Amino acid sequence: MSISRKWSAKQQRSLEILIRLKRLYPEATCTLNYETPVQLLVATILSAQCTDERVNQVTPGLFRQFPDAVAIASADIEVLETLVRSTGFYRNKAKNIQGACRMIVKEYGGQVPKQMDKLLKLPGVARKTANVVLAHAYGINQGVTVDTHVKRLSQRLGLTKHKDPIRIERDLMGLLPQQDWENWSIRLIYHGRAICKARKPDCDACVLADLCASADLAEKTTTTTQSWKTNATVPASD
Hints:
Endonuclease Iii, domain 2, 2 domains, Endonuclease III, domain 1, 60% helix
């Protein structure tokens, strides 16, 4: 069946972007270190407004003392706060990871649930965290993970006009096959870190430049500026 007959121009452009990202980052995967779904859940909660690199420095010590939901649920909250302090907002994060683990122990037998609606009931868990856990712990593509990189790049690529992550996710889910929802997110995150940075995107080095609305706009702006400088009249000296 021909894709061109079933997919819109924006959907086809999204697929081409994904194909190029897969070629560029063939081994891309979740950069958080974990061994179990509970550990991935905890690490993802800690990653809010914090780098994965910092989280990976914190979690080895955390998981040595508290390796599972039962241990975290019964931990001294002040000890948890001390262990996660460097990730920022540590009091709230410690409270959330303990609250989530207590609910997991009480309601789900110590196992992280595989259903989106159940995950969203856990303290500190919104769709971003739930999507990461479902995709990387269970291989379930329930949605598109929208972090700061995915939000920024999807907007720059002209694939969404929304600022709200929920609406951005809805737009992206309509543009991509479900089996590639997390492939899209994880590779956009890699590309956002390497090339399409927040302050200064390197459009000249970007393999997506010809498909990117922002790169096209930047090129036109540069061309117009250069043309203006070339054609500007130099005032005669006195």
